[in-house]
């Protein structure tokens, strides 16, 4: 792994990232909620890119991993702006956005912010709009009143918080209520034993994307994380196949 670099935002917070130069388009991995660039999928992607001479960028959102900030201040809009800033600071021409879980929501927002730079997208159990469908109505009332809610975390000892600012920003950035104006290649991977994000959400996302080049792959025994060796192998094959796709602007 290359050394961690930092991009300084206008307010002084430093956004940690790793960059491997190489052939483009640059693979950009967007982690899930409360995750960072040290995860198994991000690490495998980066190692594959280095081994094959592909450009790759990993990013830690503020309040996550090695980046500055408090997680409680994090919102989708804030994290989108950080990802956009790092991409622009690196002067990347074309990128492939690879979003895991919440990162699959964020990639849609980044693609909207950088329409001329995004070559294609890969969603891994993409979870757009989970502040709407993934939170009980009674909890939404608490969030609307400014309270943080906590849920059991199947992946660690600490409960998972949802902060009011994150929820409100999510509700302001719902993606599945209207057609999504993206026309490049999209690949969606989803485990059918995902207990966190219903696998039919990938079908809904497929329906809402304007692109005609969208493929959905279900992994029948796959869970939400899709981090087994066999799952990561599917991701690597998907990336390799997508890089052969014709640039939609060429």
TrEMBL record:
The keyword Transit peptide applies. Pfam families: Abhydrolase_1. Keywords: Hydrolase, Transit peptide. Its EC number is 3.1.1.93, 3.1.2.22. It catalyses: S-hexadecanoyl-L-cysteinyl-[protein] + H2O = L-cysteinyl-[protein] + hexadecanoate + H(+); mycophenolic acid O-acyl-beta-D-glucuronide + H2O = mycophenolate + D-glucuronate + H(+). It comes from the Bacteria. Residues 25-135 form the AB hydrolase-1 domain. The keyword ATP-binding does not apply. GO terms for molecular function: hydrolase activity. InterPro entries: AB_hydrolase_1, AB_hydrolase_fold, ABHD10_acyl-thioesterase. It is an enzyme of class 3 (hydrolase). SUPFAM superfamilies: alpha/beta-Hydrolases. Acts as an acyl-protein thioesterase that hydrolyzes fatty acids from acylated residues in proteins. Regulates the mitochondrial S-depalmitoylation of the nucleophilic active site residue of peroxiredoxin-5/PRDX5, a key antioxidant protein, therefore modulating mitochondrial antioxidant ability. Also catalyzes the deglucuronidation of mycophenolic acid acyl-glucuronide, an active metabolite of the immunosuppressant drug mycophenolate. This is Palmitoyl-protein thioesterase ABHD10, mitochondrial. The lineage of its organism: Bacteria, Pseudomonadati, Pseudomonadota, Alphaproteobacteria, Sphingomonadales.
């Amino acid at each position: 792994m290359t050394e961690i670099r930092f991009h300084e935002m206008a307010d002084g917070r430093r956004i940690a990232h790793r960059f491997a130069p190489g052939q483009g388009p640059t693979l950009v991995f967007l982690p899930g909620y409360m995750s960072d660039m040290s995860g198994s999928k991000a690490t495998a992607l980066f190692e594959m890119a280095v081994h094959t001479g592909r450009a790759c960028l990993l990013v830690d959102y503020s309040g996550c991993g090695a980046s500055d900030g408090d997680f409680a201040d994090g919102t989708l809009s804030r994290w989108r702006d950080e990802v956009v800033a790092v991409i622009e600071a690196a002067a990347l021409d074309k990128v492939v956005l690879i979003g895991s879980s919440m990162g699959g929501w964020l990639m849609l927002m980044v693609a909207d912010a950088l329409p001329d730079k995004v070559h294609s997208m890969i969603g891994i159990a993409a979870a757009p709009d989970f502040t709407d469908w993934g939170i009980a109505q009674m909890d939404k009332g608490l969030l609307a009143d400014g309270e943080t809610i906590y849920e059991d975390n199947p992946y660690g000892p600490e409960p998972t918080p949802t902060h009011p600012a994150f929820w409100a920003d999510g509700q302001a950035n719902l993606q599945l209520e209207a057609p999504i104006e993206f026309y490049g290649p999209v690949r969606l991977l989803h485990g059918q034993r995902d207990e966190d994000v219903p696998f039919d959400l990938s079908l809904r996302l497929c329906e809402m994307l304007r692109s005609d080049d969208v493929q959905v792959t279900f992994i029948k025994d796959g869970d939400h994380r899709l981090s087994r060796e066999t799952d990561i192998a599917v991701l690597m094959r998907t990336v390799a196949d997508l890089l052969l796709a014709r640039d939609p602007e060429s």
